[in-house]
Design brief:
- This protein has about 230 residues and is α+β, with helices and mostly antiparallel strands.
- Helix content is about 35%, strand content about 25%.
- Strand 5 (about 120-125) and strand 6 (about 130-140) form a beta hairpin.
- The radius of gyration is 18 Å and the shape is globular.
- It starts with a helix and ends with a strand.
- The structure holds adenosine-5'-diphosphate (ADP) and magnesium ion (MG).
- Magnesium ion binds near residues 211 and 224.
Length: about 230
Amino acid sequence: MKASQIIAKAVKEGRKSLLETEAKAVCTEYGIPITKFKLAKNEDEAVKFADAIGYPAVLKIVSPDIIHKSDVGGVLVDLKNARDVRNGYNQIMKNVKKHDEKARIVGILIQEMAPPSTEVIVGMTKDPQFGQALMFGLGGIFVEVLKDVTFRIAPVTDEEAREMISEVKAYPLLKGYRGMPPADIEAIARILQSTSKLVMEHGEIKELDLNPIMVYRKGAKTVDARIILE
Ligand code: ADP
Ligand code: MG
C-alpha cells in the first residue's frame, strides 16, 4: 500500500497513530532504511518468520492501543532460536494482557535484530508558526538527559541536513570514539532529507519519530518508527 492509502486507512478507522508496520511501510516508500519484518498472527507463524528472517530476532507487540511498546513489556530483543521465539511470543501476550486486558492485538512483529551501534534519532514536530520542524540528535541520554538536539524547518536541503548533524555537541562521537565505529554521516543526511520530503508531502502527519536509528560504518537502520496523525 502507498503512504497516502495507509494514512487514509488509519484516518477512516479513527486512529491517530500508525502501527509500526504501517509507519515503516511509509518510511520504505521514501527510501528510509528499516529493519526487515513480518507480522505473525500466531506462535507457529512467529517461529516460521523468525527462521526465515534469521537469528537473533526481535519480537514486538503491534496494537493500536499501545504506543510505547517497551513500557508494557511488548518488546523482546536478542532471541536466539525457535524456542526463544515461541516463549517470547507468549511472554509478550501475557505482559500486554496484564497491562491492558482490552488492548486490541493485531499481531506480533518478527524483526531482524539490528546489531548494536551508535544510535541517533530523527523527529518531526509541528511549529504553529513555521510548520514542520525536523529534529536530529544522538539517542538515549543525549536526547533524554542532555537535550542535545538540533532543529530545522522543513524542507531541509542537503547542506542543512549536514549542518544539523555537525552542530550537535555529541558530533565527535559520530566520527568514532573509543570502540564506537565512525558513523555513516551520508546515510544520516539522506534519512533527514527523506524524512523532510515525507512530512512535506503528507501534511496530515502531526509528529514523527524515528527512534532509534542504528548507524554503522556503512549504512543505517531504523529500528522503530512512530507516526502520529492530526
Ligand atoms: P518503543 O519505543 O515503542 O518502546 P522500540 O521499537 O523502540 O519500542 O523498542 C525498544 C528498544 O528495543 C529500542 O530502543 C531498541 O534499543 C531495541 N530494539 C527494538 N527493535 C530492535 C531491532 N530490530 N534491532 C535491535 N534493537 C531493537
Ligand atoms: Mg522506540
